[in-house]
Amino acid sequence: MSGELIKVPNTLRNKIGGRMAKVDLEAIAKAEQALEALSSNFDEWIVVELTKLVDARKDLPNNDMSGAEGKELFNRAHDLKGLGTTYGYPIVTAFASSLCDITGEAKIRAKAPIALVDAHINSIRAAVKSSIKTADHPVGGILSDELAKKTKQFLATI
C-alpha cells in the first residue's frame, strides 16, 4: 500500500498579513496599571450593571421573557458575565453566565421558569451586597451549587 503526501499551502499567514508581531509586554504592563488605577470604581460600577439587570427584570411584561424585554434581560446578564471578574467578582460572572444559559436563546428563554431567573438575579444581588466574590465563600458556594443544580435540571427538560 502506498500513499501520496499532499502538501497544503499555509494560506492563513497570507490572510493575516504574514507573521504576527511580538507581544508588547510594556503595553500590557501599562494596561494593567490603568486597570489598577480604575479599580477603586469597580464596586460602584458593578452596582450600576446590577441595577440595569434588575430594571430589565422589572420590565418583563407579566413575567414573559419571549419578547424584546426578555432579550434585554439576557443582554444585561451577558454584560455582567463579561464584567464580573474584571470588577473583582468572579462569582457574579459565574451566576450571570448561568443566567445567560437559560436566557440566551429565544426558545429556551421563553420556557425558563421566572423563579429560576429571579434566583440568579437575587444571587448576584447577594454577592454584590455582601461582597461575596468567589465560590470559596461559604454562602457563595451554596448559592453556586444550588443554581448550577437547578439550571442543569431545567436545561435537561428542553
List keywords for this structure.
mainly alpha, 8 helices, Four Helix Bundle (Hemerythrin (Met), subunit A), 158 residues, 68% helix
Provide an overview of this structure.
It is a single chain. The protein has helices at about 10-15, 25-40, 40-60, 70-85, 90-105, 105-110, 115-130, 140-155. By secondary structure, it is mainly α. The protein has a single domain (about 40-155), classed as Four Helix Bundle (Hemerythrin (Met), subunit A) (Up-down Bundle), CATH 1.20.120. Helix 3 packs antiparallel against helix 7 (about 115-130), helix 4 packs antiparallel against helix 5 and helix 5 packs parallel to helix 8. It is extended, with a radius of gyration of 21 Å.
